[in-house]
Write a structure and sequence with these properties.
The protein is α/β, with parallel strands linked by helices and 387 residues long. It is built from 18 helices and 14 strands. Strands 9-10-11-12-14-13 form a six-stranded mixed β-sheet, sandwiched between helices. It has a five-stranded parallel β-sheet with strand order 2-3-4-1-5.
């Protein structure tokens, strides 16, 4: 697989780079800091040594040039190291880049992620803009955009093994759940809630577990960065909105691999949710880079809905995502209502195969083209309003 430059912007000082396994954190840091001191906590010997004596980090760093960063890979494996990291940042003005695939153990250790002394950056699946002409919407819907999966000679098989890798090497290793069978079942059941409001009670009943256990499992998914809840948009609400958040797996391919498929399942339903998830992936990546924007959705109690709302000091956009190749007038009802309540918002429909046009102040764009225009640090509104 050819090399693709990632668009994630790097903070000037120390920072955490968090992201699920297989998103390319280590390779990105190796390319950006070839002369930095790299300490890989996936190395069992290194992990054992630093777990036994976290202060040993001070000795390892001492001879290293101060103008080069110290890269700690998978820092959540030895969260006690953050005390030494804190000391080196404060005392010696060292710069650290701390990668990890889970924030759970860091928070449990009470480190509070260095109390704000290190910025927080995330690395997720590829963006369409990073792949450029190699981006294929059909492939993204089928196997997702995780770099590890796309680099595999058998991406479908690698994708099937991906969730199992987490269950074996993360969930079991850290004893995050008591019953691995119940958790594996939960991964499948919650796939039906991808791109939909989450009803924890219903999920718990389908999994034959308690509501508290289901809530805990959802927290594990979020801590492992495998999924996220999107809250409803309620700022300045004019109409009554629903309270339940929506859930999304972090990658559309992972969602497709976990969703049971059979003769009673309609591919169009899964495809629509997968496409919406891909758009959410891109807007969440943009918002994470911006740092002061939120990604949410809007749904009223009367059934009016907008799939995604991106809100912040620079962007306020409402987005409807359609798998169909044509956009009907009825598809615009949610955006029309949203525009009435929030005239400041720019409104868009991203549809598969649609032609660029404007209807009632709503911009309609081909979804693949729109995704290629999402670039961290650049205005989405301006990019999507261009002819």
């Amino acid at each position: 697989m050819r090399h693709y430059d990632r668009l994630v912007r790097e903070p000037k000082g120390s920072y955490f780079l968090l992201g699920p396994r297989g998103t390319g954190k280590s390779s990105l840091l190796s390319r950006r800091h070839p002369d930095g001191l790299r300490i890989d906590l996936l190395d069992a010997a290194v992990e054992r040594e630093l777990s036994a004596r976290p202060e040993r980090l001070l000795d390892l760093v001492a001879p290293h040039p101060r103008d080069q960063p110290v890269v700690l890979d998978e820092v959540q494996r030895v969260p006690e190291l953050l005390n030494a990291v804190h000391q080196l940042i404060e005392r010696d003005r060292r710069r650290f880049v701390l990668s990890g695939s889970s924030a759970r153990k860091l928070r449990r250790a009470g480190t509070n992620l260095l109390g704000g002394r290190a910025a927080m950056t995330t690395l997720g699946p590829f963006l369409a803009a990073e792949l450029g002409d190699d981006f294929s919407l059909d492939d993204a819907l089928r196997v997702g955009l995780i770099p590890l999966i796309l680099a595999s000679p058998e991406p479908e098989r690698a994708l099937r093994d991906y969730a199992g890798l987490y269950v074996r090497e993360e969930v079991r290793a850290e004893a995050l759940v008591r019953s691995h069978g119940d958790f594996s079942r939960f991964l499948e059941v919650i796939a039906f809630s991808h791109a939909s409001p989450v009803n924890i009670s219903d999920i718990a009943r389908d999994c034959a577990i308690t509501r508290r256990t289901a809530e805990g499992y959802l927290g594990v998914l979020e801590d492992l960065l495998l999924g996220a809840r999107l809250p409803p948009f309620t700022r300045g609400a004019v109409r009554a909105t629903i309270a339940h958040p929506k859930f999304y797996y972090f990658d559309a391919g992972l969602y497709q691999s976990l969703l049971p498929a059979g003769p009673l399942d309609r591919p169009s339903e899964a495809g629509g949710a997968a496409l919406e998830g891909i758009v959410v992936q891109h807007l969440r990546a943009w918002a994470s880079d911006a740092g002061d924007h939120t990604v949410s959705f809007w749904r009223t109690r009367t059934g009016l809905e907008v799939d995604i709302v991106l809100y912040g000091p620079e962007e306020f956009i409402a987005v409807e995502v359609k798998l169909s190749r044509t956009v009907k007038s009825s598809d615009l009802s949610g955006l029309r209502a949203f525009g009435t309540d929030y005239p400041e918002a720019k409104r868009f429909v991203l549809a598969r195969g649609a032609r660029s046009e404007e209807v009632d102040g709503i911009r309609i764009l081909p979804v693949a083209e729109a995704l290629k225009r999402v670039r961290p640090g650049e205005s989405i509104t301006n990019a999507w309003m261009e002819p």
